[in-house]
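Input:
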Amino acid sequence: MIELRWYIWLSLIVFTIGMLGFLTRRNLIIIFMSVELMLNAVNINLVAMSHYMQDMRGQMLTLFVIAVAAAEAAIGLAILIALFRTKAAGHVDEVTELRG
Amino acid sequence: MAYPVLSTVIFLPVVGALILLLMGRRQELAIKWFSLIFTVLTFVVSLPLFLNFDKTRSDMQFVEVFEWIPAWNIKYYLGVDGISVLFVLLSALLGPLCVLISWHSIKDKIKEFYIALLLIEAAMIGVFSALDFFLFYVFWEAMLIPMYLIIGVWGGPRRIYSAIKFFLYTLAGSVLMLVGIIVLYFNGGHTFDILSLMSQKFPYKLQLILFWAFFAAFAVKVPMWPVHTWLPDAHTEAPTAGSVILAGILIKMGAYGFLRFSLPLFPDATKAMAPVMLTLSIIAIIYGGLICLVQSDLKRLIAYSSVSHMGFVTLGIFALNQQGLEGGILQMINHGIVTGALFLLVGVIYDRSHSREISHYGGVATVLPVYAGFFMVFTLASIGLPGLNGFIGEFLIILGGFKASRLAGALAATGIIIGAAYMLWLYQRVFFEEVNPHIKGYKDMDLREIITLAPLVVLVVWIGVYPNTFLSFMHESVKQLVIKLQ
Amino acid sequence: MRYYALIPFLPLLGFLINIIFGRGLLKHRAHWISVPVVGLSMVLGLMTVREVISGNVINEDLYSWVISGDFKVSVGFLIDQLTAVMLVVVTVVSFLVHVYSIGYMHGDPGFYRFFAYLNLFTFSMLMLIMSNNFLQLYFGWEAVGLCSYLLIGYWYQKKSASDAGKKAFIVNRFGDFGFGLGVILIFLTFGTLHYAPVFGSVSSIAGKTVVLFGYEIDLITLIALLLFCGAIGKSAQIPLHVWLPDAMEGPTPVSALIHAATMVTAGVFMVARCNPIFNLSEIALTVVAVTGAVTALFAATIGLVQNDIKRIIAYSTISQLGYMFLACGVGAYGAGIFHLYTHAFFKALLFLGAGSVMHAMAGELDIWKMGGLKNKMRITYVTMLLASLSISGIPGFAGFFSKDEILYQTYLKGDLGKVLWLMGTVTALLTAFYSFRIISVAFHGRFRGSHPEEHHLHESPPVMTIPLVLLAIGAVAAGWVGIPPLIGEAIGLHGAWFYEFLSPVVGHPSEEGSHSVELMVMTLSIIAGIAGIILAFYLYRGDAERAKALLKRPFLKKIHTVLWNKYYVDEFYHLIVVRPALWTARTVIEAVTDIGIIEAIVNGVPKTIGRFSERLRAIQTGLVNHYAIFMVGAMFFILAFILMVK
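Output:
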């Protein structure tokens, strides 16, 4: 039986990797992957907690997160392709259309 | 349950608007006729309110109640009493007139215009018949959107500025009222039911705060001095039908709000604040009148005259006695008819000249005699000539005002001098003297325009000669209100 | 409903028919409707008067007009002796003027409109005099004002005419302001607006006071003075007399009917009607008397020097109205109404005569361009002469009896009465002078216009001259119903019938005089009248060289300038009312308050918010990395916050 804190540590490490990647990389695809990492870190956390507390709500929420993540990835990739087509841009700092 | 008159009156225009949505935008004539038929039909189905209203009762009639959102105790609750019934009828009457006057003057996005017009009519009638605060607020705000579009899309050159100003001004006031409604909900036993809230007595401090919260919304709508500055811009830039609705109905909602909510819900605060309200009313009467003397724009002048006339209305309301209140209500109807008609008339000449400048005209009576005759009738009604409707209202208001405070009554009476001065001067500059070369060759009013204005002439004389037809609607309800205020 | 209700409503019917069908169907045939309806209402009116003479007073409500709480007012009719006198004046003069207008207005493009307005006026005036309550009186009061406005500005293409109409209405509104407040105060005091209960209980409030702006004021005096405000406006007394001379811009029949015989006398009628109220207030009566006497003298002096024939007669009207108020003010209401009644005939005649002259002279108004008309226009001349003799107070003519009674009653009224009497007698001299100045300059001497104009001169058609003749009969004989007892005894007639007839409504004057005093007053006023006539003929004989010589003297020239400019009252009002009002409106209200303060705040709030947002937008770089750092930073911040609070 693996203790709960190992899951939390794992989740924390995955989350940190994701966050650092999210903050430091310029390539959009990598940023997306980093976001996925963070989401999955949360999922790990949720499932572990759910199991530990014997409460199914955590796992339910995980399913929601997965669904949202899938949708987000779909839209994100679509935007990415659109950007690539119109501006041939793969890096985030090349896109500043929303500058106020 | 009896036949739901009020719901029919409210939703008939909505149904009309929905059907209009489905019509092709090229079928312009069909759209116009269709809107006309629906507005006339709405007026016809509202007639039972006039004919079957029991004048001996002071409570709500034609009541309809359904649960709407039970979780928050929100109901679909409609009904009219002697205070509101006439406004429902006036709204229904002005509907067809607005369609008729826009017949040729709206050339662009015709379908959308008439949809907006129909929706606005539904919302107006809803405001006057809602007895649930939530429902009331929905209608209250629902009015804003089509009006905003009517000013902003079909208005004059400065329409964008005016539309935004109108929207933000009124919204800013309404938001405070919304807060007030929510406070009432929590302090009045978790209900939005206006009648059950009215039967409760709130502590004085709370009354005072809520009075001012509601005041913000109503004062802007009336508009009372000093929050009146949206009115000249909105009136001036709106297309004719928009001005008519603004002057005829929309600004009545503020005064109606005072009558329906502020007075019965917060009687103690109202009594305490009456001197302030009287003062503001007097300022509005004189200020609005004087500023009319120096306007060079026809619609702007009439808009400012509304400020002055609505000053009379609020004066009557806050005189807090039978004559003042009845005079105030009657004057609201009168003002709706007369100022509505004046805007219709300005629209008639604007369709020919596309100018609102007074100096553009002169000698119109020579070129358009029938038009001059109609304008004269409403000018006289506006300056309170006995025998026409304006007099009855103003006289009762000044009488009520005099009862409440001699000074207020006397000062208000100066308003009738100023009123005569600016209206007759306007009339002289537009209609008399030499014919201005600009207006040569204009056609006099055609049958459509005469039909648009004739009903209003009939009402002006009817109310002036036999006001009891209309005053008798109010007696019982106003009596109850006065008792509550004692 | 009895037939008398038709008296006002027949002319109303005529108005409606004319205004709806006049432009399309009737056109130049408008009088086919208008004249018969007024004629019929005259017949009905005279029938009613006969009934009143036989002792029937009618007081009946038609329907309830306004009901609101304890405020209840009906539309109803009160036909008593006072109303009967007014009925005679209004219906007869109105009918004659209608007939006259057929000829005078012939060919005018607005023919139907003119008759419609005249009908409306007759209706309004009848509603005013037949009313049995104050609100209906107010209705008639304002409605005749409207007709006056419409008819003064009848030739609206002329700026001066439309200005004059507007001025009349607005100046009258100043008076009505007080009148309206008076009516309201009556309601608040008595709880009703109907004459009978108000006058019945009026003595119970004698001596009551009311606090107004910190002063304690006698209630009944306040009511009386407020009502009198209305009379000042409508009857063109100082200080609201300025509209009447300008009102001469209207067609001449209008001046005769509205601005001489009927509407302007409504103020006198109202004061007489409210005599129970006025009688209880010494102050109010004094104000009425002094206003009347001062106006009489003041207007007569202006009338001396004017050149416009209608304006001279207009000032004469103001002056004669002053006499009527003087009579009311000394409590001799009967004499005031009597003068109203005789004045209606001779003044309407003067105006219609002037109209006849204008008709012959293509609208010329300047008496100096006339001259020698008596040979070309015999009927006009003779009737004008009779009217002038009547107004000058020559014994036997109508004006003599009424004016004499007023002066006599004034003389009896203590010390102040003596002063007012002196003013009245001087006015009588001036009246005779300016009336015969017209006769002398316009009708005697030689014609001063061009040859074609002289050739054009002609007597007016019978449709115009017959009313002149009928009015002339009135101007001579109308006074015989009120012969003073002094003369009555001498010639074996029952004197003072008129005063006896009116006494149930207006009572008797309080002072009793002696025959010797009456004889003295009478003699002096006759002397004044004759002196005025002789002076006028003396100064204005031929080409008026004597008058012109007099004006060469510097002192008289200065006085002439002041009088010619009507004491600069119009200019004064322009300076203290019109200009300050416009200045306040334009500068204080519009520019400073509305735009400078309110709009500045209204537009200032969104502008301030906008400026703040302008700064904030710098954060929005558009770089995703920056947003990400903000997100993470905010997350840590919130986490830290939660942990710290815990």
